[in-house]
Amino acid sequence: MMNPRHEELAALLNDDQRRALSTRLALLDRQLTETEALIVGGRFEGAMFKIENRLSPNRTQQILALLQMARAHVARLRDRFELSVQREDLARHLAGHFGILWTILENSRAAKLKGFGDVPDQLSQTLDPEIDALVEIVQQIRSLIAPQ
Fold first, then answer.
1. For residues 101 and 121, what is the distance between their CA atoms, to the nearest angstrom?
2. pLDDT (tens digit, 9 = 90+) per residue, 63-111?
3. pTM for this one?
4. Would you state the pLDDT for residue 10?
5. Quick one: which H or E segment has residue 51?
């Protein structure tokens, strides 16, 4: 059963305002959740990047407590204003990311590096086949993500 007070608060927003607020709070909630995952997970790294947690244990606990408080506020606002939860299909989410990765790779070819200085011919012969291999992997992932 709907809380009558929540109905009153929800009536303060028109549909467009409700969607805008829902979207903004969903973005905040996502960042809060990702921040918590990075802090709790400790290390997050790949071959070309590393995120290191140099926060003291005391500061880490304070941040985690604040993240929890912020997420509680977001949940309270969701309930009070009857905001919709933003749902995203994983395949669509990944398709967007891998589309961006494809573009990044295409712009990483030797010819595209000319804007940063002279490009020796040998660079194209060495770099581009590796970029081609990565593009192929990204394309294979994209095809697996695509609806069947």
1. 25
2. 999 999 999 999 999 999 999 999 999 999 999 999 999 999 999 999 9
3. 0.77
4. 81
5. strand 50-51
Residues facing residue 45 across a β-bridge: 50
d(C-alpha 104, C-alpha 135), whole Å:
10
Supply φ then ψ for residue 45, to 5 degrees. -150, 160
Question: Per-domain residue ranges for the chain?
Answer: 4-80, 90-145
Task: Return the closest-CA partner of residue 51 out of 68, 34, 66.
Answer: 34
Distance CA 61, CA 39 (A): 9
pLDDT at position 5: 74
**pLDDT, tens only, 23-64:** 999 999 999 999 999 999 877 899 999 998 889 999 999 999
HSE at residue 69, side-chain half, CA atoms within 13 A, is 6
- Distance separating alpha carbons of residues 97 and 10, to the nearest angstrom: 34
Residue among 132, 92, 90, 142 at smallest CA distance from 111: 132
